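Weekly structure sync, notes
Attendees: PL (lead), two postdocs, one rotation student
Agenda item 3: pending single-chain targets
PL asked that the sequence for the first pending target be pasted directly into the notes so everyone works from the same version. It is reproduced below exactly as submitted, 292 residues in total.
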Amino acid sequence: MKDTTTDRSLNALKHGASAKTLFLPSEDPVQFDRLLDDAYEQYKPANAQEDGLVYDSVEGRWYLDRRQKVRAEYELFLHNTFADASLWPDRDMAHLERLDRYCTTAERAFRRALVNVRFIKTEAVKDEHWRELLALRKETLKLAREKFERAKEKEARRNGDKLKANLKAHQEATAAAAPVQQAFISFVDNITIIDQLSPSNDEVRKLIENGAMQTVVRHYTFLNDIPEEYSFLVPNGFERNSAKRYEIRHQMEAAQFLKLARREDEEIAHFSTNQSEISDEDWVQLQRNKTK
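Predicted structure, written out during the meeting:
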């Protein structure tokens, strides 16, 4: 069964004044041990009942010190933020009053514990049994501290897993936003037009279908002419020169690329079919007319 008690206590760490956890991350357990040593040596509890009274007084002192410290730090924060106390926001004033009530409650609890522990008749204690009780109490506190440390480690791992998940999601979103780069090289000779694409249209289609890419940037390199079917890349009236090399960068959305790639596939299929139906001489003449 999951132990949710410590997890709930850790949530209260954000509000130190009301936290029921014995040790907060900002506190030093060694200081608590010193208070415990001093109290046990002073009152020398001889049995379990007296042991509980002494421990309650130490715990009461510990919580009172914590609440007073939180209250003082909050008031200092308000002074540093608003030099004039009359300008303090009502919400902060209400919180300060709440801290005052926490301090008052802790002080009353400590005073009750102190009154009870003073009933111990230390003069009747002749043995060293109190040292055994102190050692037992410290062993109990050690287990409580280890449990708290495990809870903190668990919280840190949970935060680390959450950070990794957020980082992965960011990386995936960044990858999806980055366009795929496609190189397109076209060479026109006296017989036909030779086109080379890297990656191929099919490979780019798969990236789009998988949702990995939504934008395509095609880098055209026309070595000695711009074929008529790609004239949309240049403005109207542009005079092509078959002796020149042209490099054009064209960015398009996924839908536009898919439409262009489908047209390219249809043209390849069309000319492949025509080539099989006509004579070699007629097909060569057809390709020469296409490049004119």
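Discussion points:
- DSSP finds eight helices and four strands in the chain.
- The first strand starts at residue 180 and ends at 188.
Action: rotation student to compare against the earlier draft before next sync.
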